[in-house]
C-alpha cells in the first residue's frame, strides 16, 4: 500500500481550489507550505444553468479527489480539511451550497477567483492582477484592505482581452473577409482549418445550436495568437486593442485604490502565455502607468487559494512557508 505524503500524521491539511471556465485545479498542502499533490477537473462555471449543479459537483469531486489520491490520502467523503478556500469563476452564487455539501473543512470560504489570482501572484501583497483566460477581469487590493473589481461580466457584455474575445473577434473579421468587406488576410481559412468546417456559417450555426461550446470557441485564441506571432497584422491589431482595454481597466483600479509608486501588476491566464499579449500589455502599462511594475506571478491561482486557506486558519504566511511552497509546488 502507498504511504501518505504527510510526514507527520498529526499534520493539518489545507485545500486551495481554482475553479475556472475551462478547468478546475485543486492543491493540497500541509501547514508548513509543503505541497502534497494537485488534481484537475472540468469547468466550474454556470452552476445556475441546466446541468450546471452536477457539472460543478463533478469538477470539485474530480479535482479534489485526484489531489487526495495523488497524496495517498483518504477520499473526499472521508477527509476533513483544516481550512479550504475555493476561488470560483463568477463568485460564490449558486456554488457555495454545492461545494460545502461536497467537501468538508473546519474553515471554508467560497468566493470569486480574482482574489485567489492576486493572492497567488503577489504572495498576499497588495497589488493588481489582470486575469485574461477564457474571460477577463481586473482585481486589486491596497494596503488598507480596500478592493476593486473591474470587468468580469461575461462574454456578451465584457471580457475584452480574453481568449473568447480574441477568438470571437477573429471569427467576426473572417466573416468580413469572406463577404469582401476587408482585404484578404488569411482569416477565413484560419477559422475553417481550426474548426474543420467548409463554411463559416456551419461554425456559427453549430455555436448557436450549442454543438460548439463557448470554451471550444475560446480555444481558437491560441491559434489566432500563433498566426499573429507569425506576422498576421490584422490579428496583431486585435491583440493590441485587447491589451489597451486591459491597461485602461488597470488605470481605473489605480485611481480607485489610490496606488502610487512601485506597486505590482501581474497578468495571469492563457492570454498572458502568448508572447504578443505580454509584450503589448507590458509596453502599454509602462507608457500609461509608469509607476506600475509588471511582475511575473509568484504562484498560480490554486496556490493563491491555499494561501487564503492558511489566512483563514490564522497561519502566518512567512518567508519560510513561501519558500516551501516554491520548492514543493506541483507544476
Give a verbal description of the structure.
By secondary structure, this protein is of the alpha/beta class. The protein has two domains: 13-123 and 299-328, ATPase, nucleotide binding domain (Nucleotidyltransferase, domain 5); 125-297, Nucleotidyltransferase, domain 5 (2-Layer Sandwich), CATH 3.30.420.40. The chain contains twelve helices and ten strands. The protein has helices spanning 52-70, 96-102, 113-122, 163-178, 187-195, 200-208, 214-218, 220-229, 233-257, 275-288, 301-312, 319-328, and strands at 13-19, 24-30, 35-41, 80-88, 104-112, 127-132, 136-141, 147-151, 263-268, 292-295. The strands form two sheets. The protein has a five-stranded mixed beta sheet. The longest helix has 25 residues, at 233-257. The relative contact order is 0.16. The model has no long low-confidence stretch (mean pLDDT 93).
Amino acid at each position: 500500500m502507498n504511504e501518505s505524503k504527510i510526514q507527520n500524521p498529526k499534520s493539518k491539511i489545507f485545500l486551495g481550489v481554482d475553479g475556472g471556465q475551462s478547468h478546475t485545479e485543486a492543491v493540497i498542502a500541509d501547514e508548513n507550505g509543503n505541497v502534497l499533490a494537485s488534481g484537475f477537473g472540468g469547468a466550474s462555471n454556470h452552476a445556475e444553468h441546466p446541468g450546471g449543479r452536477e457539472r460543478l459537483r463533478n469538477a470539485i469531486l474530480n479535482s479534489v479527489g485526484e489531489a487526495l489520491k495523488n497524496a495517498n490520502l483518504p477520499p473526499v467523503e472521508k477527509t476533513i480539511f483544516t481550512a479550504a478556500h475555493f476561488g470560483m469563476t463568477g463568485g460564490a452564487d449558486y456554488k457555495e451550497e454545492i461545494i460545502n455539501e461536497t467537501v468538508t473543512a473546519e474553515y471554508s470560504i467560497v468566493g470569486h477567483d480574482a482574489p485567489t489570482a492576486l493572492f497567488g501572484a503577489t504572495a498576499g501583497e497588495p497589488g493588481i492582477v489582470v486575469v485574461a483566460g477564457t474571460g477577463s477581469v481586473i482585481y486589486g487590493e491596497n494596503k488598507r484592505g480596500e478592493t476593486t473589481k473591474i470587468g468580469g461580466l461575461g462574454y456578451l457584455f465584457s471580457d475584452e482581452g480574453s481568449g473568447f474575445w480574441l477568438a470571437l473577434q477573429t471569427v467576426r473579421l473572417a466573416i468580413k473577409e469572406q463577404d469582401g468587406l476587408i482585404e484578404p488576410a488569411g482569416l477565413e481559412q484560419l477559422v475553417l482549418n481550426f474548426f474543420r468546417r467548409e463554411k463559416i456559417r456551419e461554425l456559427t450555426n453549430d455555436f448557436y445550436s450549442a454543438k460548439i461550446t463557448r470554451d471550444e470557441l475560446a480555444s481558437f485564441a491560441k491559434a489566432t495568437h500563433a498566426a499573429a506571432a507569425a506576422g498576421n497584422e490584422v490579428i496583431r491589431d486585435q491583440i493590441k486593442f485587447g491589451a489597451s482595454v486591459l491597461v485602461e481597466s488597470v488605470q481605473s483600479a489605480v485611481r480607485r485604490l489610490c496606488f502610487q509608486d512601485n506597486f505590482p501588476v501581474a497578468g495571469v491566464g492563457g492570454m498572458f502565455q502568448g508572447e504578443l499579449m505580454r509584450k503589448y500589455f507590458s509596453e502599454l502599462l509602462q507608457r500609461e502607468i509608469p509607476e506600475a511594475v509588471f511582475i511575473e506571478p509568484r504562484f498560480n491561482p490554486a496556490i493563491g487559494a491555499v494561501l487564503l486557506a492558511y489566512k483563514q486558519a490564522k497561519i502566518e504566511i512567512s518567508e519560510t512557508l513561501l519558500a516551501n511552497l516554491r520548492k514543493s509546488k506541483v507544476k
